[in-house]
Amino acid sequence: MIACGTRTVMRLIGVLWMMVVMVPPLGAAPTHVVSEEPVSVEKLGDGGWLVDFGKVTFGNLQIAAPEGMSGVVEVRFGEALKDGRVDRKPPGTVRYAEVRQHLIGGQSLRVAPPADARNTKQPEAILTPPEWGVLFPFRWVELHGWKGDLTLQNVLRNSVFLESWNDEAASFECSDPLIQRIWGLCRDSIKATSFAGIYVDGDRERIPYEADAYLNQLSHYATDTDVEMARDTFDHLLRHPTWPSEWGPHMVFMAYADWMHTGDREGLAQRYEAVKSKLLMERVGPDGWVTSNEKQRSWNDIVDWPQGERDGFEHREVNTVVNAFHLRAVQLMGEMARALGKEQEAMAYESRFEERKQAFQEAFFLHGRGAYRDGVGSNHASLHASMFPLAFGLVPESEQDAVAEMLVDRGMKCSVYGAQYLLEGLFQAGRGDAGLGLMTAKGDRSWRHMVESGTTVTWEAWDQKYKPNQDWNHAWGAAPANLLPRFILGVEPAEPGWSVVRMAPVPCGLNEAKGKVPTPRGPVEVHWKKTGTSYGLKFSLPEGMKARVLLPYRGSGKVSKEEVPLPTRREGKWIRVVPEQEGAGTLLLR
């Protein structure tokens, strides 16, 4: 058990958040309106017109009536299509709206549905500039009552995106067209949902939530160069926290992700004191565990969402998932404290992490089953009780293979939110092949299902039947946007600010992959290819960046660069290239 004095210090760190803490001012990343032509217009049998903009975005219409045209048109906006027409009765909160608009010849008029009372409710919802009009997620429009022919120039969409968004900032291609399409869907989802300048949960509420924001942040970093949107969302959530237990530790994750991505010590220092209150230290009991009272067990301890995605998780006073989040947050706080030169605090966090990590294993691990129990007093082992510890590095190396195998056997028994952590754990444990298999599995619990449905923005849940009121514009379902660059291309920061990149591509059954990963220093470009027993890796790094390269062991294990042999060493399943790489080059392993 942790010494009383240390535990008291830790509790004070978490609970006595000083009133003098300076929280950064609120803001929102700049967004702007982009005028887009339709990809097609089609005359319908009843005389109406179907307009397709190709992808769902948040926006409204600009209708230009030719000279001499007047009258009223009925405009139908929709996210879904049914039998070749805009679906007027879509399920759940899939969007549909209709507006009657009087046209004036020679004038261009903005047309938008009325505002939704729920997603404009104050003070929770994030509002967009009133001069832009109501923004609505839609891909298709039907026009009825239009006189004469309709051209691409008559109907434009005013779409809103993050002002700094760069379509060329990131790319991903591979030998499996389905995986490539999944990445494209997820990248487009991050762009489409940037309309508010702050990460929101979708169109139903337009409210930031901590877990949504963290997953959004990871995928945003992997697809664009902006860093302010994540910071603005973080600062908003400091003032407007939400209710789930595990969402607080996600704020620690966000602060750490910002630190690793930017290397901005000043930004870290500015937010460090505020984030201490997110460790759940106020819930730590005398025995060192984060505990849950009756209300917390029945409501706040979210485990996964919606409730039906919890794989039968048994809520206990001391539960595995909440304590896993707490330990991971404590570990990251220790790293951030040390980066800021706060040695005493760093030592306190590190001491707590090491002691509780061992206690965690002793209390929760079910020997012989390769799994973790849901909590103290439970013999049930849900997917979640094991996938979070594996993703957070809490599973001893000697048990990782068994835990990963158990997760593979159970399959995708978690939500699209939980899938971020399930797949992350599998990739880290060397089971990326199974991770890709789950990502592309047939059935209705994979990204294959989303792609094959025709959607252009990821959903809040795997299917309507799992969450009848789900949004069709939820970026927390876009996990492959960050997982594929991090593990298939193998590109992650090894040091804060990307001064050193870890480059460790994992083939996972693919024969080839290439792509571009944005960083604050410039893009990292990677192209690897397997040919027989050889493996080639071509890379290009921005100036001032070094790469620690690990290649999957194969052949003789000998590596050359432009035909010149390089010193290497074996590290488990990897071959490490001993000299750190700079600039550009091609490595060959054979």
- Tally the structural domains: 3
Taking all residues together, what is the mean pLDDT? 94
In percent terms, what proportion of residues is strand?
Answer: 15-25%
Shape estimate: globular
What is Rg? 25 Å
Low-confidence residue ranges: 1-22
- CATH class descriptor name of the largest domain: Mainly Alpha
Describe the structure.
- The chain is α+β, with helices and mostly antiparallel strands and 590 residues long.
- The chain folds into three domains: 4-26 and 165-488, Glycosyltransferase (Alpha/alpha barrel), CATH 1.50.10.10; 34-162, Jelly Rolls (Sandwich); 492-589, Maltose phosphorylase, domain 3 (Sandwich), CATH 2.60.420.
- The chain is built from 15 helices and 25 strands.
- It has helices at 4-15, 177-192, 210-223, 228-239, 247-262, 265-275, 294-300, 320-339, 343-364, 383-391, 397-410, 416-428, 432-439, 447-453, 480-488, and strands at 31-36, 40-43, 49-64, 70-78, 81-82, 85-86, 96-104, 108-111, 136-144, 155-162, 171-174, 365-366, 371-372, 491-493, 500-503, 512-517, 524-531, 534-540, 546-552, 559-561, 564-566, 568-571, 574-577, 581-582, 584-589.
- Strands 1, 2, 3, 4, 7, 8, 9 and 10 form an eight-stranded antiparallel beta sheet that branches. The protein has a seven-stranded antiparallel beta sheet with strand order 11-16-17-18-25-20-21.
- A hairpin with a 6-residue loop joins β14 (491-493) and β15 (500-503).
- α10 crosses α11.
- The two termini are 51 Å apart.
- Residues 168-486 form the Alpha-L-rhamnosidase six-hairpin glycosidase domain.
- It catalyses: Hydrolysis of terminal non-reducing alpha-L-rhamnose residues in alpha-L-rhamnosides.
- One of its GO terms (molecular function) is alpha-L-rhamnosidase activity.
- It comes from Haloferula luteola.
- Residues 490-561 form the Alpha-L-rhamnosidase C-terminal domain.
